[in-house]
Structure formats: structure tokens, C-alpha cells
Write a structure and sequence with these properties.
The chain is an alpha/beta fold. The chain has helices at about 15-25, 45-55, 65-80, 95-110, 125-135, 155-160, 240-250, 275-290, 295-315, 320-330, 365, 380-395, and strands at about 5-10, 30-35, 60-65, 115, 140, 175-180, 185, 215-225, 225-230, 235, 255-260, 270-275, 340-345, 350-355.
């Protein structure tokens, strides 16, 4: 494959730091580095110079935090997406935006290829490349992990030392980390044994529940059309709102997850995650939906959540099927406006109250006290009609 110019999705981490030099040696091509600031809580002031020092001809560092939360995280939260019952998809949802912006830079710079540092064993290679092909069908893709001679992170570390390339990973801390404003993930190395408990020193976004305050923290989250818009009455932009909730929930030990998941490529992998603000928003959203969504709409939507989450996890964000399903999810959110009160306490996020201007909940109907709205005698015919098929089945069996 002949390459003239490639845009590298560059994080400054182990894989991508080495990849720039490797690509120049292997393809004799110009390499443009591109770093997406999705709120990974790192000092990116020197990353541009680091990329240039490593051999990039040009480097982009783009602040995409608001776009990330507004156009990717919030639509996913509106759909209550959870993969395999527990994972809130923090890594998965970042990839389509990173790849989308990478393609935009490739078009602008007239590059004929894009490159990424995802391994040939993981999900990210699929997420990156499906997006790239969906947005620029003729693009060439370089995936160093599927090509180069290195076969482990240790061999990469040794190569980096040999060529004096500074990297944040050491042999003493050999697990992979990926962070954005929504979450942080930890994989590999000491975590590959699913029986081993993650070391407490590893966590960065949350304290352990044991060290969380002994007094609960109460917060109120305001929603409009399924999107969170305020905390404790104060309106915040999407990114600032999520950042604030990360801090509050993290201090209360909320959002940790230890999961063995099924990767798209076919293997099981152990991942440890922290999603403090996202966990709070997921619980709050479902609480508000409980009083604003019609029963049948909710049940139909819930039946589609596993499929929607699977699309996000597999990398099918920029596809007609995900966009169509998003339309249905969003249509269900027209009345999901109101406020949820939550109690955060030692790793727990407990719903303490919910209210909505268009609530379907009626205290008059639900009460066990005397009322005049609901005629309890009507239930007899309702039950008999629903029991008719069961009676017929019982008679046939006899």
C-alpha cells in the first residue's frame, strides 16, 4: 500500500508515540498528528510539540468536549444504553467522534490515509475504521498493531526507550488506561486475571466507598426533553454539567465497575471502569422516565436498549440503523422534562424524589385510601378477559 500523507489519531500514549516514527520508516510518508481533547484530564499543552518532536509534520489539538457530551454522550443517555447489563459505554462512544474529526482533517489536508493505535484484538479498531469508511469510503487505513513486529506492550516500551521516545507507561504499571469526560477504563497487565481485585491506587475519578463521606450528599438534576440541563437549579453546558457531576459523585465513591465483557472480535476481556457522573445521570434519567413515559412506549423502548447498546459497542454509530433507532429513542423523550432529587452515599446513588410538569403519575389513582376515580369492580372483567386463554389451555390439557 502506497501512502503519501496520513493523519494519525494521536494520544501521546505508548502506542501512538511509537507509531509516528514507525509509519515514517515503514511507509516513507508524511504524518500529521491529531489529538482530540475529550476531557481526559491531562495537560495537553505540550502534546503538540511532543508529536512534532517525534516526527509529525503538523499537529492538531482540538477541544471537542462540548460536542462530545452534547452530540454523543447525551443521545446515548437518552436511550439508556447499557452494554451487557452494566457497561455505560464510555470508551465506545468516544471513538466515532474521534474518527469523524480525523476524517475531516484528512479531507482538509488532502491526506490519503488515516491511522490509529488500536490493537488487532480489541473493539476500537472496528469502531475507528467503520466510522472512517462510512464518512470517506476511499480512505486508506494504517493499523500499526496489525502490521508491526511488536507483540506486547513490553516490547513497545523497550522500543520507546531505544529511540528515546517518552511514554507514560512503565513495566511497573503495565495496564492500559483510556479517559474522557464520561469515564476512565483500565485494561490489560495486572487486570488480566479476573480473580485479582484491582489495586485501590489505580483509581483516579472516585474514592473508595469506604473513604467516602459518612454524610450523604443531596443533589437535584433538571431535565428538558430527556437531556440534563441543570444541577441544583444552576444551568450548565453539557460538558460543564458532566464535569461537575463527576466531581460530586466521585467524592461519594460512585461509578466503579469491574466487568468481564464480550468483545466484538469474539473474546472475553476484563475491564475496570469509573463512570461517576454518567452513573448518576443514568439513574436520574430512568427515575424521571418512570413518571413521564407511557407504559407501552417504555416497554417497547426498553426492549430495544440491548440492540442500541450493541450498536454503540460494536462501532455502528454512523450507520442508518443507529440513526433510525435514535429517532425512536428521541421521540420518546418529548415529555421527559422535570427534576430528580438524588442521595449520594458511599457508592450508592439513591433516588429521593422526582417531579415533572407533564407527569403521568396520579396520586388520586394510585392511592390506597378512599377515592372516586377508579371503580375497583371494573378489575373483575379485566381479569376474566385476560384469563380466557389460560382457561382454554387448562381445559385442553385435561
Amino acid at each position: 500500500m502506497k501512502i503519501k500523507k496520513a493523519v494519525m489519531a494521536y494520544s501521546g500514549g505508548l502506542d501512538t508515540s511509537i507509531a509516528i516514527k514507525w509509519m515514517k520508516e515503514t511507509y516513507n510518508c508524511e504524518v500529521i498528528a491529531y489529538c482530540a481533547d475529550l476531557g481526559q484530564d491531562e495537560d495537553l499543552s505540550g502534546i503538540k510539540q511532543k508529536a512534532l518532536d517525534t516526527g509529525a509534520s503538523k499537529a492538531y489539538v482540538l477541544d471537542m468536549k462540548e460536542e462530545f457530551v452534547r452530540d454523543y454522550v447525551f443521545p446515548m443517555l437518552r436511550a439508556n444504553a447499557v452494554y451487557e447489563g452494566t457497561y455505560l459505554l464510555g470508551t465506545s462512544i468516544a471513538r466515532p467522534l474521534i474518527a469523524k474529526k480525523q476524517i475531516e482533517i484528512a479531507i482538509k489536508e488532502q491526506a490519503d490515509a488515516v491511522a490509529h493505535g488500536a490493537t488487532g484484538k480489541g473493539n476500537d479498531q472496528v469502531r475507528f475504521e467503520l466510522t472512517c469508511y462510512a464518512l470517506k469510503p476511499d480512505v486508506k487505513i494504517i493499523a500499526p498493531w496489525r502490521e508491526w513486529e511488536f507483540n506486547s506492550r513490553e516490547s513497545l516500551i523497550n522500543y520507546a526507550k531505544k529511540h528515546k521516545i517518552p511514554v507514560p507507561v512503565t513495566k511497573k504499571k503495565p495496564y492500559s488506561m483510556d479517559m474522557n469526560l464520561f469515564h476512565i477504563s483500565y485494561e490489560g497487565g495486572i487486570l488480566e486475571d479476573p480473580w485479582a481485585e484491582p489495586p485501590e491506587s489505580m483509581f483516579t475519578m472516585s474514592v473508595s466507598p469506604e473513604k467516602a463521606p459518612a454524610k450523604p450528599t443531596y443533589i437535584e438534576i433538571g431535565y428538558k426533553d430527556g437531556n440534563p440541563v441543570s444541577v441544583d437549579g444552576k444551568k450548565l453546558s453539557p460538558a460543564k454539567l458532566l464535569k461537575h457531576l463527576n466531581e460530586v459523585a466521585g467524592k461519594n465513591g460512585i461509578g466503579r465497575l469491574d466487568l468481564v465483557e464480550n468483545r466484538y472480535v469474539g473474546m472475553k476481556a476484563r475491564g475496570v471502569y469509573e463512570t461517576p457522573g454518567g452513573t448518576v445521570l443514568h439513574i436520574a434519567h430512568r427515575a424521571l422516565e418512570s413518571i413521564t413515559l407511557d407504559r407501552e412506549v417504555m416497554h417497547m423502548r426498553d426492549s430495544l436498549i440491548p440492540k442500541y447498546a450493541e450498536m454503540v459497542y460494536y462501532g455502528y454509530w454512523h450507520t442508518p440503523e443507529r440513526e433510525a433507532l435514535q429517532g425512536l429513542m428521541d421521540a420518546s423523550q418529548e415529555d421527559v422534562t422535570g427534576t430528580v432529587r438524588l442521595k449520594l452515599y458511599k457508592g450508592n446513588c439513591i433516588v429521593a424524589g422526582r417531579k415533572a410538569p407533564r407527569s403521568l403519575y396520579s396520586a388520586e389513582l394510585a392511592t390506597f385510601e378512599a377515592e372516586s376515580v377508579y371503580d375497583q369492580r371494573d378489575a373483575e372483567g379485566f381479569i376474566k378477559l385476560n384469563a380466557l386463554r389460560l382457561k382454554m389451555r387448562a381445559r385442553l390439557r385435561k
